[in-house]
Each structure stands twice: as C-alpha cells, then as structure tokens.
Amino acid sequence: MRTVELEDELAALLEQEKPLGQAARETLVMDLFRRGKLSIGKACKLLSLDRVAFARRAAELDIPYFQMTKEDWAAEKASIDAWLRSS
C-alpha cells in the first residue's frame, strides 16, 4: 500500500460525502474508469460494489457506464440480432 499527502483544503473537499480514504479511493477509481484505464469489473471490485450500485454511482457523477464506440455497438447489436434469430 502507498500513502499520498493531500493539502487540508483538498482533504476537506473529499470528506464532504465520505471518510477521506473511501472518498479518495472512489475518486481515483471513477476517474480511471472514466478515462478507460479500468474495466467495469475491476472498478466494481476495487470499490466493493455490484454492477448496479456502480452504475448508479457513475450516473450520480455524470460518468457514462457504457463506454462503447459505434463499432462496438454495431458488433454488440449484430450478436444480439443473431442470437434472437437463432431462438
């Protein structure tokens, strides 16, 4: 584990909603997820949240839960369409 020093003013801002350690961890994980550095599964694990709770918290922070390109969506839709045709 590593330690990070924060100015009192920044720590106070983080502590407005949650204890400092929890708030800092959530802030870092959510930012890494937003930037595409963490998967949904890894972010959920790091925050000890299930996917629904993670999606709700991401929405509260205006962080898109689904981060897919048009190509990703097209491939996903094609897979679903193929599955529906086979059912």
Write up this protein.
The chain has 87 residues and is an all-alpha fold. The chain has one domain (8-86). It has 5 helices and no strands. It has helices at residues 8-14, 20-34, 40-47, 51-60, 70-86. The protein is elongated. The mean pLDDT is 92.
Summarize the structure.
With 87 residues, the chain is an all-alpha fold. It has one domain (8-86).
Morphology: elongated
- Biggest pleated-sheet summary: none
Q: What is the succession of H and E elements?
A: HHHHH
Distance between the termini: 49 Å
Number of helices: 5
Number of E-type strands? 0
Produce the secondary structure layout.
Layout: H1 8-14, H2 20-34, H3 40-47, H4 51-60, H5 70-86
Helix pairs in contact: 2-3
List keywords for this structure.
87 residues, mainly alpha, 5 helices, elongated
